Amino acid sequence: MFIVVGVTGGIAAYKSVHLVRLLVREGHDVHVIPTEDSLRFIGLTTWEAISRNPVTTSVHDDVAQVRHVALGQSADLVIVAPATANTLAAMAAGLAADLLGTTLLATTAPVVVAPAMHTEMWRHPATTANMATLRRRGVHIVGPADGPLTGGDSGPGRMSEPDEIVAVALAHVRRTGDLAGLTVVVSTGGTREPLDPVRFLGNRSSGRQGAEIAREAAQRGATVVLVAASIDDGVLDEVSALPAVSTMRVETAAQLGGAMTDAAADADVVVMVAAVADYRPAAVSDRKLRKEDGPLASIALVPNDDILAGLAARRREGQTIVGFAAETADDDVIERARRKRERKGVDLLVVNEVGWDSGFGPGENTVAVIGAAGSVVAEAAGSKAAVAGAVWDAIAAARGIR
Ligand code: CTP
């Protein structure tokens, strides 16, 4: 594979020597593009010796070969490691001030960046906005890791380790386009079941995992319908801006069920990530319930339909149905998940352990995927984006893709 490695001006550049070695050792044709600034940390001679290819930094070198776009056009993969705050800002703005800038604009290959900077710079709103822009454009981000930084301080900002960057980057190339031609429907968020015009029964789902499942599918080539119930602020901003994703908003389980049934009619894959209320109030008051109405000793509930089981029972030929189950670790999670998969009649059930402070919100997730034979076919732990990648790998494998 023709791989371009951009190296920018941070102390973590020394780790990228190992990254380039790993890629060369795996037999890839590696072309390093250092920025001028990065040469203060690691010199051209090192990059040429390690990559076994000529290395230049300027768009004015090797002009006859149109080098400023040729490297980007030839690349199967571009990795920028370390990616400084300045480089990420330049990428977000589309600047082409040097050979790395022109290469990044000229490439259509997957781009993976490994940010490295001090925690304050990583958390600055400018960097946050630049990362959101890059993510929206399909740039893959590895890290940064949390740990000791050069100034003796500690926090998120360390460049991820070279072997992790290589693994993530190569996985993205492998996956690029593997879901092309598929139509998928994903539900996310938590339903709200009204009690009166101002109150509802709801749950703590943030909608993040489902949004990542939708984003991953779109990035791998699928056309995505995302049906979103109640979600945290901002969760849908990036994913619903992707051209391959169309988003529908719903509130109750009944509305979610209707939207999913309609969308599933044309879908190859249905993934139910939404946290659906099992019950709704038997009566919905059309005016606000007041204390003067008398004490409300209990709320009568009636069961909602099981949307997932219904979709599985009516699945069209060749359709893959995937459920999610959030389980607290009070007993054998996997055994419960096995029984749930069978009961619901789905192809795959993704089980994640939740607690008062895990599984919800922006944090990490740990999942196991139960397959048709009842065995665990995949396990993943990490960011919700990383988990989404593993879930789609399992779905692709179940459909015999690759
Ligand atoms: N689900 C659904 N319709 C419902 C309830 C759940 O489609 N009325 C879906 C969820 O979207 C999820 C899966 O079913 O994909 C598992 O939900 P879960 O609440 O764990 O299943 P339950 O059958 O409600 O089991 P439990 O008794 O453990 O809550």
Automatic annotation (TrEMBL):
Reactions that this protein is recorded to catalyse: N-[(R)-4-phosphopantothenoyl]-L-cysteine + H(+) = (R)-4'-phosphopantetheine + CO2; (R)-4'-phosphopantothenate + L-cysteine + CTP = N-[(R)-4-phosphopantothenoyl]-L-cysteine + CMP + diphosphate + H(+)
MF annotations from Gene Ontology: FMN binding; metal ion binding; phosphopantothenate--cysteine ligase activity; phosphopantothenoylcysteine decarboxylase activity
Gene Ontology, cellular component aspect: phosphopantothenoylcysteine decarboxylase complex
A Gene Ontology biological process term: pantothenate catabolic process
Region: Phosphopantothenate--cysteine ligase, residue numbers: 184-402
Domain Flavoprotein: 3-171
EC assignment: 4.1.1.36, 6.3.2.5
Keywords: Decarboxylase, Flavoprotein, FMN, Ligase, Lyase, Magnesium, Metal-binding, Multifunctional enzyme
Swiss-Prot/TrEMBL cofactor(s): FMN; Mg(2+)
Family named by the database record: In the N-terminal section; belongs to the HFCD (homo-oligomeric flavin containing Cys decarboxylase) superfamily. In the C-terminal section; belongs to the PPC synthetase family.
Protein name: Coenzyme A biosynthesis bifunctional protein CoaBC
Organism (species): Microbacterium oleivorans
